[in-house]
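MOLECULE: protein
FOLLOWS: sequence and fold
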Amino acid sequence: MTTKQYFTAAERQQLLQLVNDLNDKLGKQLTCRDINTVHDLIKRGIVDAGIFRRDQYGLNPVIRHLRTALTLCENIAPDRTMVIATMLYNLCRGDFLDVKRVKALFDDDIAHVVHGLLHVAPLYKKQAAVENENFHRLLLTFAEDVRVILIMTVDRLSLMRTINHHPNEKFVHEIASESRYLYAPLAHKLGLYAIKTELEDLSLKYLNNKVFSQIATRLQETKQERDQYVEDFIKPIDERLRQEGLKFELKGRTKSINSIWQKMQKQGVDLSGIYDLFAIRIILDTTPKDEKRACWLAYSIVTDIYKANPSRFKDWITIPKSNGYESLHITVYGPGDKWVEVQIRSRRMDETAERGVAAHWRYKGIKSEGNVDQWMNEVREMLEASGQEGQMSLMRSMDINLYNDEVFVFTPKGDLIRLPQGATILDFAFHIHSRVGSTCMGGKVDGKNQKINYRLRSGETVEIITSATQTPRLDWLNIAVTSRARNKIKNAINERRARQAQLARETLQRRFKNRKIEPDDATLARVIKKMGYKTTTEFYAAIQEDVIDVNTVVEQYEAITAKQSETVTPRGTAEEFVLQQPTEREERVDDDILTIGDDVKGVNYKLARCCNPIYGDRIEGFIASDGAIKIHRIDCKNLRHLKGRYPYRIIRTRWTGKAGNQFIATLKVLGRDDIGIVSSITSVINKTDNCLLRSISIQAEGGLFEGMLSVNISNINLLDDLIKKILNIKGVKQVDRL
């Protein structure tokens, strides 16, 4: 095939025009040698190697790359490196040319950018991951150079312009979806707002042409007419601001079709219900000391000229947003019966909003990404610099290694997973699911078998290999680096130990029963301590693992009881608990009762968090696996469950005669969402003796509210009185203790 056969007549005309425009934009940056070398390589790529074949959708890659190169010059900066790299990329991708040859023919810088483009290309085989929020991070990791991202973004804009009226609707839909989810946010972060807006508008046009056409038609104004409207709107404001001696900058714009559509969806209205089709920003040059006064003065000027809508007023100067954003937002009724949004702020406030923690993309809902924000700000500042000379040279030196503390890997289905740097196959397995992690034997990384300790690298595809016989081991804690994996491993090991301990406990109980011994828990605790074990879990694990013979334990128990001339109540150790002997008054009771309270010493007990018993509640104790006694309210659901499974571990329990310290109680309050009802509730609590409010959370919906209160209180009688007082508050319908 000759070049003449390759290009249609229309394409040859486009080719000549694009080349002439590029020469005009680049000027002296391109030498005759550059032009001849690139021309010769492309010609041989077409004729000899067939590299520049039309793609499966009939698009001519040479024309596309020339359009991309020209758009780069127009929207970014005329740059020899980016233009040549854009033209040579497909030749290298098709193995006609390699990066070393590019370096020899041109220079290191062009070869570096081409290498970045080649490095990113394989990612697009993972189509399922493109809409993943981590995909653009992976792109930045692979790109190696900010100019690679710029070329990719501009190339996507060039492609979006080209596919208008393309017959393959599925192809158009895929390209538009990818542009909306990936490239528009990238352009937004880079400060390429014109490119971002055009990408979003074109995406809406291709994905929902009916809506796009309706909005475009109903606007019934050309861009020139809308710009004229903004100019007319600004004129009287400009005059009054100058009369007041204010120094300022006025920015006016009409919102894009996509932005209008987003507002229509969010607000659930048609076009006539959108308040701010036009937006004006007043930026005041003033000292920090006078900025608030200047902003309010500008506010009064605008509202004197145009009627304001009070319901749309937002004052983020008196009380800034939590992210530091400061501005006055007003919506006024402008000429021609149109609503216009006006933002008023100082230069410092504007810098904070555009460059600092309240950057535009953040308060629009895009999450911050650590040092990437600072890096993006630097790129934007370069692109917005008054002179273009030197911008690209500065970008060459910029470090794009933003995510050197993270790694991004794919599942076999193309889902993208983000993990910390140094993560292993084991971490990946536990990220997928705890069961997958617990049975992990290794994995296949890009088709090659690897062990569980293999450290993953960005862009790899990982498939986990499992076995039903595999269980977590203690040495896995030396392999896993993520807290998720480490916690799952620890939990699995502890659960296994707990199961083993339970089996060993039951074995020991059967042996005692065979010897017709009713074991005393306090005495058994002394046996455990004497045998050198700090916890009952370790002790029972040793039995299960045959480190200790059960008969030895029984013999030790009998030896201790034989030395006791009478039953005594052991006190003073954390491992032991006390069953007090009944007094004469209590001898009618069948079982011993554990007495707890502030004046009882030597009893290892804890108040259960599931029911938070307080002094005066009817309670029972449950002997936990570690030997401690958990105290539950008698109506606790967990206690009923424990009684059903382990009735022999339940201990009758009562409080001592003294209330002791304060206890935690949680109340659920339901009622009408009246003004001041929260204040009334907190006031009642604060006025109640020996009661302290720990926390309160209120949720209101549909005129009703639900509140969760946590209080410190000393006994059940005070709690009952508090509940009655809250019920007497107007609007409160129900109070329940949890």
User: Anything to note?
Assistant: The first strand starts at residue 248 and ends at 254.
